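Protein folding task:
====================
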Amino acid sequence: MKEVVCAGDSITRGLASANYVSLLRDRLGPDGYRFVNAGVDGNLAWNVLQRLDEVIACRPDAVTLLVGTNDVNATYDARWARHYRRQQRLPATPSPQWYRRNVDAILDRLQNGTSARLAVLDLPPLGEDLSSTMNQRVREYNTVLREVADGRGVPCLPLHERLVALLPPGHRPPPYEGRLGLALRTTFQHLVLRRSWNEISAANGLTLLTDHIHLNDTAAAVIADLIAEWLRTSPPRRS
C-alpha cells in the first residue's frame, strides 16, 4: 500500500470546498494508494509547518502540499489580517516574505524527516477577475512558491494555469469583496440543501469557485488530475 498525504487548508479538507482527496481515493485506491487528508480549515503555511509531526508520523511514500490561499487572503485588508492572526494564532502579520520562509521550512522538514516524494501545487485564483489586485497577489505568491520549490528540486504542479485555461472568453465574474458570509452560505447550501458545488458556483456567477475562495467540482477534478498524473508518472515505492 502506498501512503499519500495531502496537506493544506480548507481546499484540501473538502468540507467547504469540493473534495479532491475523495476523488483521488476513488480513482487510485484500487491501484494500491491510500490517501490521508491533512487539510485544516483556515490554515496558512505557518500553521501547516506547526503540525508536520502528524504528517511525518504517517511515514508517507508521497506528500502533496497546497497551501497559501489564506496567506494571500490575509492581505486583503487590515480586518482580514486581524481575523487570521486571532483565529490561527499567528506570530506574525502575513506577507510574501513570511510565506517564503514557511514554505521553505515545510519542504526542508519533509525532505529531512521523510523519504517521501514531494510535490506542491500552485495557488488557484482568488476570485475569477484575473485583473484584480488579489489575483495580482496570487501571482506574486505563486512566483515565490515556484522559486522555493525549484530551489529544493520539488515539482510545482500547474494548478493555476490549468484553472485559468477553463475560464470562458469574455468572462465577467462578480468581484471578490472579502465577505466571509458568502463562504458560510455556500457551505450551508451544499451540506444542508444538498446542492452541488457546480450549481452553487453558477448561481454566484462563477465558473470554478463557489464563493471566490473555494473550489467547485470541476476545479477539484483538476487537482485530482494533476496529482494522479504526478503519481502515475513516477510512482512512489511500495511500503
